Amino acid sequence: LLFHGLLGASPLEPELAIPIPTLELYRRCRLRCPQFSVQQWMKVLCDLANINYTSTLREQFSDAFDAYLNILRHVDKTLKMALGRDGPTWRILHSCPPCQYKLEGEAPLNPSIMGALDGNNSLKRFVRADRQSDTLTFNSDYFLSRETVDQFAHEVKRKVKTSDKESVKGDPTDGHSSVATCSDRWRAAMANTLKGMYNAFEETGVFVSVCRHGFIWTIVDMIRSGELCV
Question: Under a CB-based contact definition with an 8 Å cutoff, are residues 171 and 183 in contact?
């Protein structure tokens, strides 16, 4: 089937085969619009073929698409190994040409590289009982594993509580030298809201580090926590 440009929906005796260009087109659509689901895409294909949509077709296309992505990851991994680019830090050290490519005789800059770190609380995932035994992992040199992040779980310094608000420094973004009443109340309200959120969500967002040109260095899943320390 692959010789003829088709990928079967199952490894043995497939009843449906998807053209490789169709799978690649959907992959590109997903890159530009992550909300574009397999169901919506399959309905479009059914309309073009003038056939009725069924959930079985969606499941078959989803299986074929997962196999296609697995093939692409395997090819990419093999290519990086052949080129000697499979080291754990190779991508970060070569991610941004303006930051990391140095010319002969170029004057050194101080600092030589500037970056930023920030979190996104929009990418949440609910706690589900049927995912407790899920052992699937996403192999990527962008994401830091949970085991790597958990090593620093107890290194975050706790804030010292004080009853004297005048002695507490204000937030530089507020433009005040001391904590304002509104900002103090806002932080307290947010703390009460986050307590319930951590109980409902398994993943509460992502934390990303980027260079000044927007190239991503690393991504971390925030597991039942927020931005603990920056």
Answer: yes
**pLDDT bucket at 166, cuts 50 / 70 / 90:** very low
42: how many CB neighbours lie within 10 A of its CB?
Answer: 20
User: pLDDT for 4-18, tens place per residue?
Assistant: 899 998 888 888 899
Q: Does the global pTM surpass 0.90?
A: no
Q: Residue 46 CB: number of other CB atoms within 10 A?
A: 15
What would the DSSP string read from start to end of 75-135?
Answer: HHHHHHHHHT--STTHHHHTS-HHHH---TTPPP-SSS--EEEEEESS--EE--GGGTT--
Mean pLDDT of 164-190: 51
Write the DSSP string, 119-149. EESS--EE--GGGTT-------SSBPPHHHH
Phi and psi at 8, nearest 5°, equal -70, 155
More confidently predicted of 62 and 203: 62
Cα separation, 69 vs 38, in Å, equals 14
